[in-house]
Amino acid sequence: MGPDLGLPGDADLLLRRRVLEPRGLPLVPPPGEPTWAFVRARVARLLRPSLAFLGARLVVQVALHLADVGRPAGPRLWGDTALLRGVLLPAATLPFGPLWFLAVYLVVVTVSPWTIRLHERFRWWVPGALLAGSVAADVVGFGLGIRAARDANVAFVLLLPHQLGHLYADGTFARLPRAFLWGMVALGLGALILLTNPWTFELLGGEARFRWFPGVGHYPRSLLGTEVEPISNAYPPTVCYAAVGIWTIGVAVLVRQRVSRWLERPGPWKATIFVNGVIMTLFLWHMTAYLIALLALWPLGFGREQGSTARWWLERPLWLLAPGLVLAGIVALLGRFERPRSAPIMRAATGAEGVGGARPVQG
To answer: Environment class of residue 337 by beta-carbon count within 10 Å: exposed (0-12), middle (13-18) or buried (19+)?
Structure first.
């Protein structure tokens, strides 16, 4: 008996509509479940750990206000009292980074009935249009200096991997030649190399590149926004984010069969089930764990290196272990607010019938 595999998010919904229902196979939830019931279930799955996260942050904020600790931030409530203490707005630091992506994902899940219909009618044209739109938004935003145009990439870039997921769910990726998947990897990585180095923009505009990308002259190499960079790949997302999605999806599909065989083993599959059961808790709290580790280690002289020096590399295991231990403690305490899926719908089996090498569970 192989492990059971539940596809993430709306790939699950598309799978049921296009593959399992027409074949009369047993589904969980049962056939005929309204689409919006699926959406409500996904929203509930996300909101339970999120409310625990917000509740804990509320306690911290009240404590900071009462102790008069931390720089005021956010909208003013009355007099000199601001809503928040000790955070940098709008999204680059705690707690807004995780919540920003969570909010986007909630929107993506909510609009999934329409994105699935677009997929069923236009297929590859939809991700193609999203990719073209992301390039156009960056050209207008950076090249022409119309900053508001970049905001369109919140939709173009963040919907792109989701739309490619529909192609995975209906079995299209399983039928693609491996050369196509390697092409996705080459396209994504190649675009990242060209966009995050000066060569391309020196050819395109010479010194004008510093007007397009102030202080850098090209896209930042970091995909995470920070307060020290004049521009960010994250807020709003740039075409670099789209490139990352393209090459990582290509790699994921290339290694899928090997990973599926590995997951047939009880140990790896049990670990997968456990991690999936607390995945939102891990996501919401990983930055908090890193902050706690930083507050503990910085006074001891760690984390002071700015470049890739020998000491910087020697400290890497510490900066993986310390936040990891803190995060494990947080998960042990708060993971109870999150529950895994009630029941799976598929069993992973390489080469079996179904979608992308997955075998539907027979009753």
So the answer is: middle
